[in-house]
Specification:
Layout: H1 2-13, H2 17-30, H3 32-35, H4 45-76, H5 82-91
Helix pairs in contact: 2-4, 4-5
Protein name: BHLH domain-containing protein
Pfam families: bHLH_ILI (PF23174)
Main location: nucleus
């Protein structure tokens, strides 16, 4: 019984080729390096997914760096100042 359920949920969660093409096309729009290429340049789905992962990692590093900089800035201002309140709200 559990095998039947597993197969049913597995087939229900599969996406069609058209859906995959649409999703990869949407991802291309968010990737600066790929989006800047001409539309006629073919980029494989695996390349788009690889670039997406790289871009997400880059964004995570940027967020970490900005958090570190905000923390350092917070350490350098008066704890009760309006600037400190703004920095704390950005860190939340």
């Amino acid at each position: 019984m559990s095998n039947r359920r597993s197969r049913q949920s597995s087939s229900a969660s599969r996406i069609s080729d058209d859906q995959m093409i649409d999703l990869v096309s949407k991802l291309r729009q968010f990737l600066p390096e790929i989006h800047e290429r001409r539309r006629s340049d073919k980029v494989s789905a695996s390349k788009v997914l690889q670039e997406t992962c790289n871009y997400i990692r880059k964004l995570h590093r940027e967020v970490d760096n900005l958090s570190d900089r905000l923390s350092q800035l917070l350490d350098s201002v008066d704890e009760d100042s309006p600037e400190a309140a703004v920095i704390r709200s950005l860190l939340m």
